[in-house]
Write a structure and sequence with these properties.
Layout: H1 3-27, H2 39-50, H3 53-86, H4 88-102, H5 106-117, H6 121-145, H7 149-157, H8 162-197, H9 205-214, H10 218-246, H11 248-258
Helix pairs in contact: 2-10, 3-4, 3-6, 3-8, 5-6, 6-8, 8-10, 9-10
Keywords: Cell membrane, Membrane, Transmembrane, Transmembrane helix, Transport
Transmembrane segments: 12-30, 67-87, 108-137, 185-210, 222-242
Organism: Streptomyces violaceus
Amino acid sequence: MTVLTLARRTGLVLGLPAVLFAVWWFATAGSTDFYVPPLSTILGKFGEVWTGERLLSDVVPSLVRLLAGYLLAVAVGVGLGLVVGMHRGVRDVLEPVLELFRAIPPPVLVPVIMLFAGIGDTMKVIVIVSGCMWPILLNTVEGVRAVDEVLSDTCRSYGITGPSRLWHLVLRSASPQIVTGMRQALSIAIILMVISEMFAASNGLGFTIVQFQRSFAIPEMWSGVLLLGLLGFALSLLFRVAENRVLAWYHGLRRAQRNP
């Protein structure tokens, strides 16, 4: 990759966020509104609030819950999606139940989950899983059902069955759609992480932002919102890097098809 190409890609990724920050800076530069402080004030509080003890007491626990819930959702979504996608009978039995639970907004389930999981980290992880697993599950099912019949017949002809067929054919063929579901689930995970920490929590980003709001520490509250945005942006970039590595063969095939 040349320096020019790297600079161009960096500009495409950071260009719009930079413009939005500039607009925010100049639009609020002379603000006297208590609820909309200048961005300079928010940035000053950002360094003061999120680089000390609060980094370990609030940010790290939130990231641990986010990671645990997201990885568990990936495991459940992909595992169940493979079973449902590969077996029509299972799909016919489970589809009405899955559609029923998928239609229930995860935040509505928070009080219910609290009844049997308590108010600790387990509840927060379950809330994240309850919302993240659906895009992963549905995309996995569709990816498995879209496996090329010719490739499937070829595997059968050569006696490639069981785990080998699952790994080399089904998962590889469905991986682009599975990754799409995982990308959608990542943003849902961040939202549910914050929502779960707003209920009977004692630490975490969601809890801290609500505490700032209730105590009318508005610049500090905005700094927490800004941190969530930066966290989502950073996780999105990391996910894109991982996706490019895992699906390098797929992106190469797409480029070859566009430029024969």
